[in-house]
Amino acid sequence: MAYGLFRIVASAVLVLWLAAGAHSQDFDPDRASFDPEIQFVITPYGAIIGDPAQLTELGSGRVGFTHCATTPDKNRGLLLMASIVIPAQDGTEGGGHSMMMTVEQAWTFVALLRKAPDWAKVAVENKVGLFSKPIGDVIGAEGEAEHLSVRFVSDAQSNGSVRIEHMLGGVTKAFEFGINAAQKFAAQAQHAVEKGLAEMPEAAPAEDAEKSKLFE
């Protein structure tokens, strides 16, 4: 139901953007850079909001896309909501998944993703073949109630990829990204956090004495 509501809202927003001549472009799944000015992209699965990174949902093999936003929490401060949106495809309904992170966790998440190109280079140069190793933990540790981690994976041809694994409530979700897509996701997450921090009330400019006189 929640995803259905998300699709309704997203569709409404997309219609408004189209009417306003919003900035869009055809989607390039191999592009590593993130453009915050792009408001939606055209994919084989329809229009997707923002400038997402593409991924594969492990287990189902379905293609998905990323979306990042922030929300304030009175106890934990600003939170990053890094979401996975799975469009309807191959006769199946769409779905989604979200990973909530504090600012500190978000910076760890970004830093771990950005290690992937170096690891991929090592894999190719040394022809490691099939190989898998955790890059690091973002939330918790293995065996805890919630565990979010980033893992590097090399295939038989030593081509690297990134796997994000999130275990919550006894259920594990895993998503695989190409190296470039992982870099785009990192940039998308970083932009969302920086934008969220800039918009928080406590991040507003200090009081201006002259302007303050207007409100006495």
Tell me the layout of helices and strands:
Blueprint: H1 2-19, E1 24-26, E2 40-43, E3 46-49, E4 54-57, E5 63-73, E6 77-86, E7 95-102, H2 103-113, H3 116-125, E8 131-139, E9 146-154, E10 160-168, E11 171-178, H4 179-199, H5 209-212
Parallel strand pairs: 1-2
Antiparallel strand pairs: 2-3, 4-5, 4-11, 5-6, 6-7, 8-9, 9-10, 10-11
Helix pairs in contact: 2-4
Structure description:
The protein has 216 residues and is an alpha+beta fold. The protein has one domain (2-201). It has helices spanning 2-19, 103-113, 116-125, 179-199, 209-212; strands spanning 24-26, 40-43, 46-49, 54-57, 63-73, 77-86, 95-102, 131-139, 146-154, 160-168, 171-178. An eight-stranded antiparallel sheet has the order 7-6-5-4-11-10-9-8, with helices on both faces. It has a three-stranded mixed sheet with strand order 1-2-3, with no helix packed on it. Helix 2 (103-113) packs antiparallel against helix 4. The longest helix has 21 residues, at 179-199. The radius of gyration is 19 Å and the shape is globular.
Keywords:
11 strands; disordered N terminus; 216 residues; alpha+beta; globular; three-stranded mixed sheet; eight-stranded antiparallel sheet; 30% helix
Give the topology string: H per helix, E per strand.
Answer: HEEEEEEEHHEEEEHH
- Which percent range describes the beta-strand content? 35-45%
Give me the number of helical elements. Answer: 5
Envelope shape: globular
Helix content: 25-40%
Structural class: alpha+beta
* Average pLDDT over all residues: 88
Total count of domains: 1
The low-confidence parts are 1-21
Strand order of the largest sheet: 7-6-5-4-11-10-9-8
Largest sheet: 8 strands, antiparallel
* Total beta strand runs: 11
Terminal CA distance: 49 Å
**What gyration radius follows from the Cα positions, in whole Å?**
19 Å
